[in-house]
Amino acid sequence: MNKRVVIIALIALVALVSSTPVLAQEESSGLGDVDWGILGAAFAIAIAAAGGAGGQGRAVSSAVSALARNPGAAGDIRFALILGLALIESLVIYALVIALRGAGLF
């Protein structure tokens, strides 16, 4: 069996098993109980964090590749890498602030 299929099946199994306590809760009065602002903020910060993590991964990968090709430029590459990582992280923090403000938590 394909390794990717096994991983997806395990993730689905964990999601199903971890969601069973929800079925034991009391019945709610309907959709009015859901705070859609907080739910939207959660999705927004999840997307921003995933994008930031992907960007940071690509930046580190490219920096390591550049260092392997030209070890003499380590100082310049390191400076550009740290500056880029700081800017990416600041964008994710900015997305967190905007998400919290939009949810009315701030």
Describe the protein in words:
With 106 residues, the chain is mainly alpha-helical. The N and C termini lie far apart (48 Å). The protein is built from 3 helices and no strands. The protein has helices spanning 3-18, 36-69, 74-102. The model has no long low-confidence stretch (mean pLDDT 86).
Give a brief rundown of this model.
The chain has 106 residues and is mainly alpha-helical. Helix content is 75%, strand content 0%.
Q: Count the strands?
A: 0
* Helix and strand sequence: HHH
| Proportion of residues in β-strands | under 5%
Number of helices: 3
Low-confidence stretches: none
Oligomer: single chain
Instruction: Tell me the radius of gyration.
Output: 21 Å
Task: Tell me the span between the first and last alpha carbons.
Answer: 48 Å
Write the layout of secondary structure elements.
Layout: H1 3-18, H2 36-69, H3 74-102
Give a quick set of tags describing it.
mainly alpha; 3 helices; 75% helix; 106 residues
